[in-house]
Write a structure and sequence with these properties.
Length: 74
C-alpha cells in the first residue's frame, strides 16, 4: 500500500508542476527582466516547482484528511 501511495504522490507532484509551468508561461517575464533572458527561464522553472509542489501538497493533505474523517464516525 505504501508503494502505491508513493507512486500517486509522485504523479501528483509532476502533474501540478507541469500545470503550473504551463500557466506561468503566460506571464511575460522577459519584458520585466530585460536582458536577463536565461535568468527569466530559470525563474519560470523555479516558480513552477514551488507552486506545483505547494498545490500538490495541499491536495494530498486534503485527501488524507478526508480519509481520516472515517475514524471520527467509527
Amino acid at each position: 500500500m505504501l508503494g502505491i501511495q508513493s507512486v500517486i504522490t509522485l504523479i501528483c507532484y509532476l502533474f501540478f508542476i507541469l500545470v503550473s509551468f504551463w500557466s506561468i508561461q503566460a506571464i511575460p517575464f522577459y519584458k520585466f527582466m530585460g536582458k536577463y533572458e536565461n535568468q527569466a527561464k530559470v525563474l519560470i522553472v523555479l516558480l513552477s516547482v514551488v507552486i506545483g509542489y505547494t498545490v500538490s501538497t495541499f491536495f494530498l493533505n486534503l485527501i488524507t484528511t478526508i480519509e481520516n474523517l472515517v475514524f471520527l464516525v467509527k
